[in-house]
Amino acid sequence: MLPFARMVKYGNIAPEAPKIKKVLCGLDNLYVLYGDGSLYGCGVNTYLQLNVENTATRNTWILISEGVTDAWAGAYNILYLKGEEFIMHGVTTQLGTGNTMIPLGGLNVTSSFPHISNIKMISIGADTMHYVDASGSIVYGRGMNGNYSLGGGYSTAKSTFVSVINTGANTVLDILGTQNNTLILTSNNELLGCGSSGYGSLGVSPGQYTTLVSRLTSVKLFGGNSTGTLAYSASNIYNAGWQYVGQLGNGITTNTQVYPFAFNSTTIDSKIHKISKSSATSYVNMYATTEGKIYSTGEFGRNGSGGGLSRFTNTLTLDNYNPEKSSLYTCAHFSIVFDGNNQIYACGSFLYVPGPITTNSWSAITMPK
Fold first, then answer.
1. Does residue 90 sit within a domain?
2. Is 369 within the bounds of a domain?
3. Fewest CB atoms within 10 A around its CB: which of 18, 138, 266, 298?
């Protein structure tokens, strides 16, 4: 049996009230938004997404802005709400206006959005961005759309938001944008997808561009990254995409592409409640249970264990775990678990995240506050 880490807090001490409001990740960025409005980030700064001079990667926390009430991260961007204004740092690709770097200080994109009261959720991928309106059933998108991840049958760039799907009485529960696709989960448990299906990640052959159409039914949870998609249905996981180093968790490590969606016979913990997400090319996938057990699979160096994994394995257990606030992300060079309270655990390269961090186990990293 493979060893796993267990983080234990001793004593009859009530956990502190959460100070962290939200944790987000981009391609190789980690962002933390605190309840006091301070937004911190670390990782790559290729497009000045950390709002600091020069493009060097930072493995220390950078204060990006203050007075922030909400934030959303894409592969190369951070978008946040400050007062009633939307500010973006990074690259203009997802705005559909080209591929240029946004200068220090950010770009005010408020005029291109409806009022925040008319938005239920926002998702930013690598090539497009989407929002779901307040009704929960109409999805709007824009972006350069080179990978057809916009949806709505559009094959060219759009610099203003256009309606790409109306789900009617079946409201949108979740949305994810990656480097290749956009995925939407609706309240009738239908998983919709559009994009280039890189590595078969939409359940169809790579390059078979699709609009927002049904990929699976009876789906309760989904996650994945730009090379693969995982969908939990009842008591099992279905997967599609690149089976490269065990990241699909089906016990296979051969370099092959899986499509259409295939049943994964691996036993899944019945208390699963969340699957990791990524807008990047990641060779690791994870899921969490309501009890704070983290299961991971995939490439050594980011799966939290001492070796490569081809089946979901319990590599971390958190006793102080808040399922509602928690989050799981896999990036290009590191993976993170936020316990839903005040602590982030990471595994991977020390170049992008404040230490301590190693490649063979989970570590509680230094937090901004």
1. yes
2. no
3. 18
